[in-house]
Description:
Layout: E1 6-9, H1 13-24, E2 33-36, H2 40-50, E3 53-55, H3 58-64, E4 67-70, H4 77-80, E5 92-95, H5 102-109, E6 114-118, E7 128-134, H6 140-151, E8 154-158, H7 164-172, H8 174-191, H9 196-217, H10 221-227, H11 234-244, H12 247-267
Parallel strand pairs: 1-2, 1-4, 2-3, 4-5, 5-6, 7-8
Antiparallel strand pairs: 6-7
Helix pairs in contact: 7-12, 8-9
Amino acid sequence: MSSYKLGFIGAGAMAEAIINGVLTANLHLPQDLIVSDINQERLKFINNKFAIATTCDNILVFQQAEVIILAVKPQHLKEALGGFPRDICNKTIISIAAGISTNFIEELVGKVPVIRVMPNNPSLVGAGMAALCKGKYADDQDLQLAKEIFASIGETVILAEYLMDAVTGLSGSGPAFVYQFIEALADGGVQVGLPRNIAYKLAAQTVVGAGLMVLKTGLHPGQLKDMVTSPGGTTIRGINVLEKAGFRGTVMDAVESAYLMSKKLGSE
């Protein structure tokens, strides 16, 4: 059980996922958490679900919590930090705002440890992927603290900050690309006669299973593909169609486009 008080600026879906994760993993008790948001209905929901303290005043979170997670949109970050007490140094800031550098936050809060994290949407079901990096005033202990929090909602990796925009393009935006693929895969099943509910289940579990094969076997995805691609068989015919349509190149371009947008967010 962690001894520090954990605060959240922003009570959206990702904050909800993290709150659920740390409580389920017994990292914190409900009385150790506080969350602020401008949406009172959202705060009421969070309070009813988790029995934690809520407020519309960010300053109260800054005053009460030792570790503060910034769970707001990038364009709202500067405003959210407007009341941060720059004369207080015993705070740790964890930001999940896409594209926003640790240096940008340090300029707003002063010489405070800042950890930047890029989580993703499957964190909502405890199957997330989060990349973490530290700012100039953070140390390995701060990084470990953040890693413990995000390990409660999935897997974690620690990277240099210059790679964080690439992470945003891949694992941050990637779930949306996969959802599109699942939808298209299911549509293909419907096209050849499957009931839609069965098609969605087959498509989704196929993606889950394929991902686990990559993670658990340690084999190259190309090698796994070859295992199910028989000479003159059904799979190689489908792969041929995907290759002709530029499937892999299109996915690569999608990741690069998301990466460039992340860099743009950080420069504005």
